[in-house]
Amino acid sequence: QVQLVESGGGYVQAGESLTLSCTGSGFRFSNNAVYWYRQAPGKEREGVWFKNGDGSNTKYADFVNGRFTISRDNAKRTTYLHMTDLQPEDAGVYYCHTGWFGFPYWGPGTQVIVSS
């Protein structure tokens, strides 16, 4: 079955960097987009790198402001979210997400804590 597992979360100071990983299985990873979302305490889940409203393109959220980049290693079936200059407002649980045969799949999330 389709599975996504995030890792790499942790505690950082404001201004530091962190790289999250998402490893997928059970689907054709190399041909499938994997997106990133996050959810801060008390807030709704929001896209970090996601497909836009009409599905025509992927985009970074405005709050990324050039600080985050996406990469992937298809041989390792892993996509990465490289985050720099992290701020307290970036804290939350980060999730990766994909769709396969019309069904959405989410990982369990990895927590990022940013101290000021």
Could you list some keywords that capture this structure?
single chain, 116 residues, mainly beta, seven-stranded mixed β-sheet, four-stranded antiparallel β-sheet, 0% helix
Number of helices: 0
User: In sequence order, what are the helices and strands, one letter per element?
Assistant: EEEEEEEEEEE
Beta-strand share of residues: over 45%
How many runs of DSSP E, i.e. beta strands?
11
Q: What value does the average pLDDT take?
A: 95
So what's the overall shape? globular
Look at the helices and sheets and give the structural class.
mainly beta
What does the radius of gyration come to?
Answer: 14 Å
Query: What is the percent of helical residues?
Result: under 10%
Oligomerization? single chain
Instruction: Characterize the largest beta sheet: strand count, sense, and whether it forms a barrel.
Output: 7 strands, mixed
Characterise the protein shown here:
- The chain is mainly β.
- 0% of the residues lie in helices and 53% in strands.
- The chain is built from no helices and eleven strands.
- It has strands at 3-7, 10-13, 18-25, 35-39, 46-51, 58-60, 68-73, 78-83, 92-100, 103-106, 110-115.
- Strands 2, 4, 5, 6, 9, 10 and 11 form a seven-stranded mixed sheet that branches.
- 28% of the residues are buried.
- The model has no long low-confidence stretch (mean pLDDT 95).
